[in-house]
Design a protein that fits this description.
302 residues; alpha/beta; eight-stranded mixed β-sheet
Amino acid sequence: MKTKHLGWLFLAVFAVSCTGPQTRTLNIANGIMESNSDPDLAEVRSLAAGFAEKDFSTARLAKYPDTGLDRLYDALFRVSFFFPEHPASVDLQAKVLEEKLRRGHKTDFDVERMHKSYVGARRFNDAAAIAGRFPGLKYSYIPPTLTDETNGAAAWRAYGIPGSFETVVLKNLPLARGPRIVISMFPGCEITEAAVEEILADPALSPLFRKYGMLLTLRFDPRSMTLWRDHFKFTEVYIAYKPSDFPGFDFDFSPSIYFMLDGKIKHSVSGWRRNQNPNFGMNEMRKGLSAISIATASYSAP
């Protein structure tokens, strides 16, 4: 944890027992929002645990000034964005939005962020409902057809895009058996794009990646993932359902490459190149393939 953040964490913890609910809650929000450019995600998670649902009642929210309400909303959106499975942040964000609506203080951006939080939490019905209340804004795209082929199984769920981006299918990815290479990425990430291009251009690596590999993102963006699929002529592109379905994966960095064998991560690497080692990524591919017992005799790192 960064030293400069300890002050906010102390204030938030101190406030739990020594101040009223409004001060306590605002201290937590201020701590979460302290660093806009490079948030300490471990601290954000720790601070967010201090939010109490009782402090977001209609009566208590009505006592905040507009600036305080804005601060709460910004902080809750940050928690919802980075931790879509946080047990309460999306619902608390919705309560703050309703108070902003009650006093005529909301912006279009507030509504768009609420929609984004619902999509991140895979609460598509709630996202559709708010889009219906406030039509014409800039919302994340939700396909008209979402089908579920998981039969209730919760392991390694992800949305596939079998054809047009207008239809996505939730399925369980086949990671439990055999070797797999999973690249976790952000749609539009130039470094990941360069990595995939380099892998698929290599005569030894390309057939291995096409046989064992897949691209996976947490960001629900079927249009962009369809573009990646078509550009690389690579069908194994997926959108993760929830982070907890993929233990050991870090969806906050792109690219992260996971080499798995029978459902277990045997080797992983974040990034593709290093300043002093432009062949870093290709060398790590060789190490990872060896770790999951894929023959690499025909491949030698440059």
